[in-house]
Amino acid sequence: MAFFSKSVQGIAARGSRASPSPSLSHLNQTPFPAIRSRTRSIPGRRNFHLSAVGDAVLWTADSITFIHHAGLPWFISIPLVAVGVNFSFRLPIQYYTRRLVVTRNKLTPLVTAWSSRHAATVPQGQGEDAARLWRLRVAGLTERSRARIYKSWGVQRWKSFAPFLSMAPFIIVSEALRRLCGAPTGWLSHSFGLVDIQAVSSAVEMSRRYLDESLVDGGCLWFTDLTAMDPYYALPIICSALLARTSWGRLSKDQLRALLSVSPPQMPQTPATRIRTAVGRTLLLVPLFPILFADLPSAIFLYWASTFALNDVNEAILGRLFPQKSPASLKPTPKPAAVLPYLRGVVDSKEQPGPNR
């Protein structure tokens, strides 16, 4: 045992007298933030999904330029791009969302039946507080039954966020047009690595690389220069009007009154209802979005106006595919005739015995 203890002490002493290795000493002297910054600066460490979005922007810019070089002017090529994006992405997503709404409307009687059952089974106390607690319990049980029914039929509430997927091609095409117009670099380019943040000269050089000078005189009417902003602010106002017609026009007076009301609701609301109300109030501000970015090039607003105008086309197509059934068109089923008239005291005239018989 003494031999082993002496050998261990000797090894430890030699290790302490020896100079540390370069790699370990470098790690001991280098602070941790410096190591993190150095690993971040290594090329090729960018996430693949971010680089894919950047490549999609550049590929979209090349595709738009190809459509123009096929012989079409810019004020026709840009609306054609909007038509292609609409029928490739937006219309299928809206069709899927409309199917969800139609299926949920068919399930409304079942949800109402479960609500009546919960209202009958939950005991109701005396007083206002007891009545309020009873309504909250019934609303919670009804919402739980609704979620179970929607899950069984594959129409969960989270699927209602599918229209937000159409924002991806909308933003990508807008960013591609911004690069073709040579506008100042936006947030998307900085985030997805389309420009070098550390060198401003490289950003300017890249903007010149993708700038298409034919956009300067590629417009029409009052916006002949598509690389400049609309001097009369007509295109931003048109986009805002189209958005207001699409979003505000679908709401009834009662829905607008409920969204704009500041007073607390009379009936208790579930968390899902509160979330829908908050989202609806946020969407009321969407028509102001184009006016806030009125300094963007006219080419972007031309694409936006074409996209927003196609909402009416999509609604017409979906109206043909999913016609609304009005309550007046539902005729009541005729009651079948009585099979045994004798039970009602009615005898056929042919079967009645004559006076001579």
Automatic annotation (TrEMBL):
Highest taxon listed in the record's lineage: Eukaryota
Membrane topology annotation: Multi-pass membrane protein
GO CC term (a single one): mitochondrial inner membrane
Keyword Membrane recorded: yes
Keyword Transmembrane: yes
GO molecular function, one term: membrane insertase activity
InterPro entries: YidC/ALB3/OXA1/COX18 (IPR001708)
Annotated transmembrane regions: 66-89, 283-305
GO annotation (BP), single: protein insertion into mitochondrial inner membrane from matrix
Record keywords: Membrane, Transmembrane, Transmembrane helix
Subcellular location: Membrane
Family statement drawn from the similarity comment of this UniProt entry: Belongs to the OXA1/ALB3/YidC family.
Name under which the protein is recorded: Mitochondrial export translocase Oxa2
